[in-house]
């Protein structure tokens, strides 16, 4: 504490200049520091009582106080010699306070006779508390805020000697230190209470152990997890509370290694362990442990939570994954067997269908064949043709899906190929009273197999003609961009429901509009077309046309080197 020369202190007592604006009583920072002491509403502090009693003996004053100045009152945290009722009340309003001026001045206040002091003569402490002579010294917080005053009071005028002032100043320094210790202790207790509250409300169990493995902290979550109350757990070894017996030796060996080396290989790590509860039931836990040194002695703090459900879900997930992998292998095997079966059956069907077609053609060539039989032969011929197309489609899909069909790409001029496909379907379009138009611009050479590409175009055009009502239109466009050619086939026919577009290229799928109109089909043509296009590195998509109906868009990459537009 700063020591004030006695002559300066007396000079201050006689000074009646206006109150300094510094250190205002109601300054919020000062009031916060004041409340942090925890003394405003506390019982008398024993150590401070010793100092005030010592003050009355050493300076022969009837009254000594430790007064803390609040915004509207002064509180006596220690008082010796004070008359009633003030001694019992332990406080006065500021109208009865000299100590407030020690706070506002932030300096000692030494008064010989308050009745003669211009600033104090009207203070009610004079008539009510018999305060005539006063010597008070600032009590500061560690951050320099003036909290109140350590003072001695006499009911008679007196000239305070330099020795008395020095004694009171030294006692004030001791009181200041005691208040700082009390504040630090209060903050420590508050911090401890907060930590205890956090630990008690934590969802995870928290357990602390000393260097010998004895439990020192056991929160409520630990009580719930292991079945032991804190009163039962604290002071007992962790091996008796939560560690299965078969792991006791390893646990004790780990403690001994930590004591010897001062380090723990588990500190700071998250590990999964087996724990046991009060009933002896074992269960998996996840533990995060920290080892600290307190007075050079290792202590252990650990958070633990039950991971039984997590383990169960992980095991279930692993089981489902294994099942899924098995099902995938089985499905792939079934798919392979199906493709093999389709290929074999389709190949075996070719011969009898060929025989049927041959005999049908031979019989139809007989000019003497009756008309009725000729009509029947026409039905057989059409049916055989559909069977042949079906077998061809099945073989194509089996070969393309199985990767057994190797394309034989060569430079192809797509323009003539598209023109030829349009011309091949013009007769069918005319028969159905449809308008078939083509808008084909200059196209770059592409790399592909002309026969397969012709198959795709035939599938798209035959579908467009088949599913467009009389009087409708079918439009073919072809152009190119930087990556290749784009061909569209658009009709204004019966269309496809929006939710069914993603299914159009699935094998055997037919749109509800087609089946509802009793239009024949196998549902394989688009699946074959998609497989052929993708084998060429292209794409094929379907969507609604601008005037109803359906639009198919086909893209094929240009050849690496082109021979000009055709």
Automatic annotation (TrEMBL):
The lineage of its organism: Bacteria, Bacillati, Actinomycetota, Actinomycetes, Micromonosporales. It catalyses: ATP + protein L-histidine = ADP + protein N-phospho-L-histidine. SUPFAM superfamilies: ATPase domain of HSP90 chaperone/DNA topoisomerase II/histidine kinase, GAF domain-like, Homodimeric domain of signal transducing histidine kinase, PYP-like sensor domain (PAS domain). This is histidine kinase. PANTHER family: OSMOSENSING HISTIDINE PROTEIN KINASE SLN1, TWO-COMPONENT HISTIDINE PROTEIN KINASE. One of its GO terms (molecular function) is phosphorelay sensor kinase activity. The keyword NAD does not apply. NCBIfam families: sensory_box. Keywords: Kinase, Membrane, Phosphoprotein, Transferase, Two-component regulatory system. Residues 344-560 form the Histidine kinase domain. It is found in: Cell membrane. GO terms for cellular component: plasma membrane. Its cofactor is a divalent metal cation. One of its GO terms (biological process) is regulation of DNA-templated transcription. Its EC number is 2.7.13.3.
């Amino acid at each position: 504490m700063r020591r004030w020369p006695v002559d300066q202190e007396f000079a201050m007592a006689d000074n009646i200049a206006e109150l300094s604006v510094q250190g205002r009583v109601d300054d919020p920072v000062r009031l916060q520091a004041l409340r942090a002491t925890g003394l405003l509403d506390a019982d008398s502090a024993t150590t401070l009582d010793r100092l005030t009693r010592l003050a009355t003996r050493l300076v022969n004053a009837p009254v000594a106080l430790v007064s803390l100045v609040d915004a509207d009152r002064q509180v006596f945290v220690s008082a010796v010699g004070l008359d009633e009722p003030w001694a019992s009340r332990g406080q006065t309003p500021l109208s009865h306070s000299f100590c407030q001026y020690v706070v506002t001045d932030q300096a000692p206040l030494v008064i010989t006779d308050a009745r003669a002091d211009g600033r104090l003569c009207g203070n009610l402490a004079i008539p009510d508390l018999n305060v005539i002579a006063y010597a008070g010294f600032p009590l500061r917080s560690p951050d320099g805020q003036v909290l109140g005053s350590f003072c001695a009071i006499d009911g008679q005028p007196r000239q305070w000697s330099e020795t008395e002032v020095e004694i009171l100043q030294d006692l004030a320094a001791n009181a200041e230190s005691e208040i700082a210790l009390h504040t630090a202790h209060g903050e420590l207790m508050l911090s401890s209470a907060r930590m205890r509250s956090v630990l008690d409300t934590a969802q995870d169990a928290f357990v602390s152990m000393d260097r010998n493995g004895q439990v020192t902290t056991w929160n409520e979550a630990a009580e719930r997890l292991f079945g032991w109350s804190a009163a039962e757990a604290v002071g007992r070894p962790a091996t008796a509370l939560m560690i299965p017996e078969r792991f006791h030796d390893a646990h004790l060996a780990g403690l001994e290694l930590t004591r010897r080396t001062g380090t723990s290989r588990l500190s700071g790590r998250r590990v999964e362990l087996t724990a046991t509860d009060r009933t002896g039931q074992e269960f998996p836990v996840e533990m995060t442990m920290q080892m600290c040194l307190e007075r050079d002695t290792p202590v252990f703090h650990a958070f633990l939570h039950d991971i039984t459900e997590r383990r169960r879900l992980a095991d279930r997930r692993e089981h489902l994954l294994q099942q899924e992998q098995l099902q995938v292998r089985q499905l792939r095997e079934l798919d392979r067997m199906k493709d093999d079966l389709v290929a074999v059956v389709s190949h075996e069907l070719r011969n009898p269908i060929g025989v049927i077609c041959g005999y049908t053609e031979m019989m139809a060539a007989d000019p003497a064949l009756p008309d009725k039989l000729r009509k029947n032969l026409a039905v057989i011929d059409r049916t055989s043709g559909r069977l042949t197309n079906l077998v061809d489609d099945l073989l194509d899909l089996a070969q393309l899906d199985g990767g057994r069909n190797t394309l034989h790409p060569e430079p192809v001029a797509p323009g003539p190929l598209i023109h030829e496909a349009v011309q091949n379907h013009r007769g069918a379009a005319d028969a159905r009273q449809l308008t078939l138009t083509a808008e084909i611009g200059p196209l770059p050479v592409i790399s592909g197999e002309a026969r397969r590409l012709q198959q795709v175009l035939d599938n798209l055009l035959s579908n467009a003609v088949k599913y467009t009502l009389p009087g409708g239109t079918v439009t073919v466009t072809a152009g190119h961009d930087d990556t290749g050619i784009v061909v569209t086939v658009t009709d204004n026919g019966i269309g496809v429901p929006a939710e069914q577009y993603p299914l159009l290229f699935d094998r055997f799928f037919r749109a509800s509009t087609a089946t509802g109109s009793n239009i024949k089909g196998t549902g394989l043509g688009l699946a074959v077309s998609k497989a052929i296009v993708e084998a060429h590195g292209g794409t094929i998509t379907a969507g609604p046309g601008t005037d109803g109906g359906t639009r198919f868009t086909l893209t094929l990459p240009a050849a690496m080197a082109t021979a000009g537009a055709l």
